[in-house]
Amino acid sequence: MTTTHWKSLLFSRRMLICVFTGFASGLPLYILLNLVPAWLKSEGVNLKAIGFFALIQFPFTWKFIWAPLLDRYALPGLGRRRGWMLLTQVALLFLIGSLGLFNPKLDIWSIAYLATALAFFSASQDIVLDAYRREILSDEELGLGTSVHVNAYRIASLIPGAFSLILADHLPWAQVFMITGLFMLPGIVMTLLVSEPQLVRPPKTLREAVIEPFHEFMTRHGWRNALWILAFIFLYKLGDSMATALATPFYLELGFSKTEIGVIAKNAGLWPAVFGGIVGGVWMLKLGINRALWLFGVVQVVSILGFAWLATMGADKVALATVIAFEALGVGLGTAAFTAYIARTTDARYTATQFALFTSLAAVPRTFINASTGWLVEQMGWINFFFLCTALAIPGMLLLFKVAPWNSEAKREKSL
């Protein structure tokens, strides 16, 4: 892999498209995770009601249920992928802009319905953007393109997590949400300018769109190997996800102030993750996805141990910055390889449904298993909890022997 070759790939039109897909995908999610809770809290809504809004993440776990509809049907005019992309993006723009028109103390249920609709269209946009990205990228470009997408996804968090909060100190919330919603426009413009992917025959019936993605996946690999792959997708990020589920309460318990956590986390967390994702994507061009899963997975596991080390250091700012930066680097590397692997595992005829199924499965630990982390910490303490998270990361690594052997890149999943 020459320097000229990877530069030509990195600065290609397809990679620029991945920047826009990542930003458009990340913006609505971070509005739900960061901006809406901050708005509700600043308007005097109690924590119990705010906690209820965590339930709106369910569409991201169950999106595979309606993904076959997006694989089967095409909206007139723009095509199967671009039509759904435009519909979801326009809906998101108006839903985001509408949120601030309500009073949280008087219209909390109206806000809850709007937020649920926002989550639904955000998850639906993810379905079609993931499928579109997979279909425009060659196998060689998958790792790099996925890294670019993931990093643009993270950078999108700066809009609702920083820019919009600063605006809220100077403007009414209604204007803040309207301005924030306008950041969906780059994605809309991208959708109007790009071309529809040239695909193999799409599903002819809804029954084929629902049944065949699962049947194709199972028959392509065989039941046993297909289950190995599903187990790997479920387990690869489990330890890391559990370790970071209570990161902020952990830092507070060590004695750090909210300001210290915010400043250090923003600077030490975001940019190492972006750097790790970009470097990981370029490195994957040389390594291949299989070897990247091995090497980046090791970094991911070691980063979990950093939290246990921090627990012994106490409120040490340098230690906190080091742990956050290394963990973010590990996540940037590991997520790039993991998402590229998921993309590679899909069949071109059923990209939306299979991609949605795999990413939904990967989200299960974050949505359900992480609910037990508070109880576990109370039972065993922070250090032992992080040792447990490290141990839970090992099975996913061991499954690499089955799903991504070190020297089997060329044969890919058929080598299982």
UniProtKB/TrEMBL annotation:
CDD domains: MFS_AmpG_like. Keywords: Membrane, Transmembrane, Transmembrane helix, Transport. It is found in: Membrane. The chain crosses the membrane at residues 15-33, 45-62, 83-102, 108-129, 174-194, 226-248, 268-285, 292-312, 318-343, 355-376, 382-404. Coiled coil: none annotated. InterPro entries: AmpG_permease/AT-1, MFS, MFS_trans_sf. It is a multi-pass membrane protein. Pfam families: MFS_1. This is AmpG family muropeptide MFS transporter. It comes from Iodobacter arcticus.
